[in-house]
């Protein structure tokens, strides 16, 4: 048993490789099988005739744990900081789940359905708790990075204090129905083709459609896929009515701190230098009431060009829910986008319901020449109902390959 256990570990990081009975794309189950938190236990007919050992149920949660394992390895390899005890806690949970996976395999081999189902329930509880621990760890990691950088200058601390962590599209505080890559594959392929071939002429991708058609699901899927490939510079989601004042106060701060995650220390050091030069520490209140175009031009654009050219990267910004902004806020936002496109190697993925104001800016205004539009028609996605909990932002979706 010890030899078998050692065979299931990665030698360079001592993390387990899970024995998963059913491949992810072969799992069959209820309509919420794409949720990374919930998968209903088999009903009477399923467990007695179709899936006596609960293999689909068990495999779902082992895939959840395996996704955490993969991301945890990436974080360790990248040297990301962990709050005290968090890394060891994740390691222990992964090892426990790996042992349960082997115990489950043994129960199936012995044709012991009662024991197999009992172990499956343990795996479900451990994997769900592990996913929550990962979310908490990510939040703590962001705080540690921000606190570490804030020590460089009070100016940076001023920017961090303006940031709204809830506005990040991939924040664990958001919940969203999972996106099945087999659903609307043509829409998903259009998104991935755009980012692969994006130029200055089509640097704005506008995903639109009626309320409830799945725009946010696709936007989250796209942002998550890009983030995994280290190509997402920033994201922002508008979840409630947004005024110009609210936008001026924190939007650029979110972009600045997201860019710091994307470009690393070169951006942080350059941002501190730029913020100091413009006296941000002393005049922060005045600065964050100036038009967004001014904030972009005085803070973010100069910072980017302070960075050594060998460390500069193209910038992708994903914005979801622009229809929540009032007319004046939209005007300010599109002025920022114009300023950014004029000076930076940047592209924008925009998801929104069609409104008269948005249509005027993106189909008829000066920005229209940069817009590639994609419309999502019906039928609607299967949205969570009152008796079905919302499911979290996608964490383990692969971009569909070109055919």
TrEMBL record:
It holds the Pfam family NPHP3_N. Keywords: Repeat. The keyword Membrane does not apply. The keyword Translocase does not apply. It comes from the Eukaryota. InterPro entries: NPHP3-like_N, P-loop_NTPase. Residues 388-403 have a biased composition (Polar residues). Residues 379-403 are annotated as: Disordered. SUPFAM superfamilies: P-loop containing nucleoside triphosphate hydrolases. Residues 192-352 form the Nephrocystin 3-like N-terminal domain. This is Nephrocystin 3-like N-terminal domain-containing protein.
């Amino acid at each position: 048993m010890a030899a078998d256990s050692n065979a299931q570990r990665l030698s360079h990081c001592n993390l387990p490789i899970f024995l998963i009975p059913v491949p992810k794309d072969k799992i069959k189950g209820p309509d919420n099988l794409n949720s990374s938190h919930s998968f209903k236990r088999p009903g009477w007919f399923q467990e007695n005739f179709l899936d006596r050992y609960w293999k689909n149920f068990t495999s779902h949660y082992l895939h959840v744990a395996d996704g955490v394992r993969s991301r945890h390895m990436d974080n360790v390899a990248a040297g990301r900081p962990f709050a005290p005890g968090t890394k060891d806690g994740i390691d222990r949970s992964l090892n426990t789940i790996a042992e349960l996976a082997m115990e489950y395999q043994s129960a199936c081999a012995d044709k012991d359905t009662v024991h197999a189902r009992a172990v499956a329930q343990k795996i479900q509880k451990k994997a769900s708790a592990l996913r929550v621990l990962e979310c908490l760890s990510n939040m703590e990691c962001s705080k540690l990075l921000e606190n570490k950088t804030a020590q460089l200058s009070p100016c940076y601390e001023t920017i961090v204090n303006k940031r709204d962590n809830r506005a990040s599209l991939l924040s664990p505080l958001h919940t969203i129905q999972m996106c099945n890559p087999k659903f609307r594959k043509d829409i998903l392929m259009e998104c991935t083709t755009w980012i692969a071939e994006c130029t200055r002429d089509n640097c704005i991708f506008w995903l639109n459609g009626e309320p409830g058609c799945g725009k946010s699901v696709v936007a989250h899927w796209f942002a998550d896929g890009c983030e995994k490939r280290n190509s997402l510079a920033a994201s922002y989601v508008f979840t409630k009515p947004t005024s110009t004042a609210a936008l001026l106060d924190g939007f650029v701060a979110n972009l600045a701190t997201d860019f710091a995650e994307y470009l690393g220390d070169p951006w942080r050091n350059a941002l501190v230098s730029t913020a100091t030069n413009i006296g941000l520490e002393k005049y922060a209140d005045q600065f964050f009431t100036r038009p967004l175009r001014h904030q972009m031009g005085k803070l973010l654009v100069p910072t980017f060009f302070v960075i050594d050219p060998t460390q500069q990267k193209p910038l992708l910004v994903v914005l979801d829910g622009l229809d929540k902004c009032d007319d004046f806020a939209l005007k300010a936002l599109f002025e920022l986008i114009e300023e950014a496109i004029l000076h930076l190697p940047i592209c924008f993925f925009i998801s929104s319901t069609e409104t008269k104001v948005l249509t005027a800016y993106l189909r008829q205004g000066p920005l229209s020449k940069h817009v590639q539009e994609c419309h999502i028609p019906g039928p609607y996605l299967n949205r969570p109902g009152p008796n079905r909990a919302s499911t979290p932002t996608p964490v383990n979706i692969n971009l569909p390959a070109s055919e």
